[in-house]
Amino acid sequence: MPKMKTHSGAKKRFKKTANGKIRARHAFTSHILEKKSAKKKRHLGNPVILSSHDAPRAKKLLRTGSK
Q1: Tell me: the pLDDT tens digits for 24-38?
Q2: CA 67 to chain centre
Q3: DSSP notation for 16-66
Q4: Closest-CA residue to 58 (of 17, 7, 18, 19)
Q5: With CB atoms 3.0 to 4.6 Å apart as the test, which of 13, 18, 48, 59 could cross-link to 65 if both were Cys?
Q6: Cα 13 to the chain's mean position, in Å?
Q7: Which of 29, 25, 28 lies closest to 47, judged by CA?
Q8: What whole-number distance in Å separates Cα of residue 50 and Cα of residue 67?
Q9: Which residues pair with 47 in a beta bridge?
C-alpha cells in the first residue's frame, strides 16, 4: 500500500507542538478590523491550542495521530 499523504490545507494551517498538541491561528483576523478593539486584535494575533474535540480531526489530516 502507498503511504497516506498529508492534507495540503492542514499543513499550512496547523502545527504540532512538542507535547503533541495542535496549534492554529485564531479566526476573525483578516478583515472588518475597524470595529474590533485593539485589545481583541492583539489577543487574536496569538496562536491558539485546538480543543480536545477538534485536535483529533486535525491530527488525522496531518497524519500525526494513531488513526
Answers
A1: 999 999 999 999 999
A2: 19
A3: E-TTS-EEEPPSS-SS--TTS-HHHHHHHTS-EEPPTTTHHHHHHHHT-S-
A4: 7
A5: 59
A6: 5
A7: 25
A8: 18
A9: none
Closest alpha carbon to 25 in 40, 42, 44: 44
Report the alpha-carbon distance of residue 48 to residue 25 in Å, rounded.
6
Q: How far apart are CA 25 and CA 45, in angstroms?
A: 8
CA distance 65 to 67: 5
3-state helix, strand and coil shares in percent for the chain, rounded to the nearest 5:
30, 10, 60
| E-state strands within the chain | 15-16, 22-24, 48-49
Spatial CA neighbour of 50 closest among 28, 27, 21, 30: 21
pTM: 0.79
